[in-house]
Amino acid sequence: MPSSAPRGRVLFGTQGWSYDQWQGWLYPPKTPPKDRLRHYARYFDVAEIDSSYYRIPSPQTVATWLDQIPDAFLMAPKVPGEITTGRQPGPRRPADGAARVALRPMAGPRVLALMEEFLRVVRLLGPHLGPIVFQLSPSFQYPTHFDALTTMLEALPALGGEGLDFCVEFRNPSWLTREEPAALLAAHDVAWVWNDWEPATSAERWAKPMPRATDDPRAARVTSTRLQYVRLVGNHDADVDYRTISIDRGEDLAKWAQLVLQFRRERESQGIYVLLNNHYAGCSPETVRQLQRLMGLPVVTFGDDHSAAQPSPRSPHDPTQLALL
After folding, report:
1. 25, 307 Cβ separation under 8 angstroms
2. pTM (predicted TM-score)
3. 274 within 8 A of 316, measured Cβ to Cβ
4. Can you tell me the distance from the alpha carbon of 17 to that of 48, in angstroms, rounded to the nearest whole number?
5. Is residue 239 over pLDDT 50?
6. Does the pLDDT at position 278 exceed 80?
């Protein structure tokens, strides 16, 4: 089941969708959390599965998702952090008292077995499976971890990744110091994620931010012949309101709009995904709307009164609203 990268389209979505703060605004009041995706999929083209970073979803969870999404909707799962960081979920010392054994990020038999299990589950999404995202830790550096990344990318076909789309998000500027990392991704037709991320949490304060593709051409690598993936993450320590714009990102968004439009003009056969985080500006659905306006695209409509629970959806898959730029 090969993944289908939408040709010549810009697809918008958010990083995760099940936020309590969207209840009674984007979602009708009293919407059960398990039914939120049904409403989300009325407005957006794609959803990034944030929860898969913390645990491999169950087949039953995937079946619940499939029951809620329309035909052309795509889901972009994040590879579990246990694979990308080597840190296992849960307490450092489980109830049985046995200390957890640290895994080698992106390499080693246990990690590769987890990746195989993960791919087996996300393949249940069938034609709804979009790009699969490796969100790497800022401690994952070049050249120290280059061999581990090579091991994972070379193993993907045998693990069940044949024909699927993959993206790698680097969060350490060391990956920009040589051409070798980009050449590796290009050799495997894996997309280099363009990100806008600020290392601000207590575990990341030591990290240097990865330069943005809008500011540094080295961060704007194009390594896939099929797609480009953009993650606007922001600062997870920022005090934001998930229902309103809290941070003025107008200047930054204008740069991203220009870059995305340039990519679209130069590569008409490739799709480009743009995924927003609530911590980027506050309220990722509203930030999507800002970016759509700046790009001159039809703007998704939630309703004039954002405190009301009566949004006015447009079909994100209507060809008249997703015409080529």
Report:
1. yes
2. 0.90
3. no
4. 8
5. yes
6. yes
